Structures are given as structure tokens and as C-alpha cells.
Amino acid sequence: MKPISAAGVGIRFVFALLLVFATYNPSGYSYYHWLYANWSALTPYIALAGLILLIGWAIYVRATLRSLGFVGLILAGAFLACLVWLLVYWGWIKLDKAGPITWISEILVAALLAAGMSWSHIRRAMSGQVDMDDVDEN
Known about the structure:
0% strand, mainly alpha
């Protein structure tokens, strides 16, 4: 397995952001809003886009679960939720509007997915441990 670079983690994060924001975002330009507006007149475009998003979610969630494990995913999610709580506690985020907390939460979900996609590489670089799925390249 090749070592991962900051660019590799960044690319995973950008694709995770695209996946999360394409699925839903508060701006009104997302698959959720498109589906909601056209629910009575579904088209093959809407169905195809939904399947593409579903495939993307399956890839990211499965890789994250395999890499972090269920307990690791719960712990990482709890850690990120506590960070949001801390930002609210400090007054940096106001709860009177849903937009800012939604954007921040979605960015953190993308960060969690990117971390899950990159964790095997990061763990190997930090500890020298190899996953069972790694193939010997010698």
C-alpha cells in the first residue's frame, strides 16, 4: 500500500463534501430539494442521480465502517458532536437559525467520511500496523 499524502486526504475530503452537499444542503440546491419539488413527476434523471448518490454513500459509509469500526464511528461522531456543542456553548454558533449549524454539521460529516476513507493509511503511517486487506506488494 502506498503512503497517503495530505493531498490524498484532501481529495477524499473534497469528494465527501461533494457527496454530502449534493445530497442535502440548506441553500436549496440539492438532490433532496430536487426530489421534493418533483415528487409527483419523477424522471429517470432524478432516479439516476439518486442511485449515483446512493452508490457514493455506500462506498464511503462501508469504507468508514470497515476502517474505523462501529465503535470508532460512534466515538468519532460523538467527538464531532461535542465540538459543535462547544462552538454553541462559546456563542460562536447561534441556534436561532438552522443554516449555520447545518453547514457545520455537514462539513463535519464529510470530515468523518474522509477520515474513515483515509484511516487505514494514517494508522499504518503512525503505527506500522497493516490491515488484513492489505496486499503484499513484494
